[in-house]
Amino acid sequence: MEIVAEPGVPQVVVTREFAAPARKLLRAHTEPDLLARWLGPDWLKITVDVLEPRDGGRWRYTHTDPSGERYAFFGLYHGTPTTERIVQTYEFDHQPGVVYLNIITFDERGDRTVLRQNTVFPSVEDRDYYVRSGMEKGLRPSWDRLATLVTEGI
Amino acid sequence: MEIVAEPGVPQVVVTREFAAPARKLLRAHTEPDLLARWLGPDWLKITVDVLEPRDGGRWRYTHTDPSGERYAFFGLYHGTPTTERIVQTYEFDHQPGVVYLNIITFDERGDRTVLRQNTVFPSVEDRDYYVRSGMEKGLRPSWDRLATLVTEGI
Q1: How far B31 CA sits from the closest chain A CA (Å)?
Q2: Which residue of chain B has the CA closest to A122?
Q3: Which of B69, B81, B86, B102 is most deeply buried (CB count within 10 A of its CB)?
Q4: With an 8 Å Cβ cutoff, are B101 and A97 in contact?
Q5: Would you say A115 and A22 are in contact if contact means Cβ atoms under 8 Å apart?
Q6: Which CATH architecture has domain B2-143?
Q7: Across the 154 residues of chain A, what is the mean pLDDT of every consecutive 10-residue run?
Q8: Which candidate from B85, B89, B91 shows the least CB-CB separation from A89?
Q9: 0.90 exceeded by the pTM?
């Protein structure tokens, strides 16, 4: 997994190659039962509240920590998710009013697929908040579970 | 009007103060008849095809040049537009698949309002394309007309 977060640029780009076709990665992102199997840090429980993977559809999921504290993320799909691209707005209920854009692309190379997650933020401060909130600590184990899911689980 | 487009940063921020309250600027952005009176370069005719200023609503407008060529822009509202903020995704039909995020904020100061339009792009190349496509040439006369509309027209 490669993370690029350049100083002064309101953007984070994370890439990783998976030993699976794009259609499995798409399913893992757009089917609630599958998404719940890999997304989020280990120590949080995830509930997928809404997942409408179509142009203008909504999505929302909630992480709950052991003390019962909740962290909800929600937004909209711009365009229908495909095996090439998912575009969605993001908002975190603990940081209301800060909206960012997440662009996931799937690039198939033979029987492997490079997943690129490009997130752009309204400001560098908002990007830094996101990175400091434990992005990498959450993303790394999530994508490890995603790798297991798409290579062995579906 | 101040335009900030820093090298290497996929963002354009444009600000201008208007001698009008935020509620008039909001109306000028969210009522189709009013939007059509100020938006777009002088040499293009605008048609507001869809304007649903609510969370998850769609928007779409088309510019037509004297030869009949059409340029359509469309997207979704993330959150309901208010006198504080409008957040919308953007896509240009001549550049399909490139989605950006537009965050307009209204900051009232006495009987004046500072409008800040913060646009973030998937990449610096996409930002540069947007700037080179005549952004300033379109925006400057548009905002001049917007100023006239909100101070005298509504």
Answers
A1: 21
A2: B120
A3: B86
A4: no
A5: no
A6: 2-Layer Sandwich (3.30)
A7: 95 98 98 96 92 98 96 97 98 94 97 98 95 86 96 89
A8: B89
A9: yes
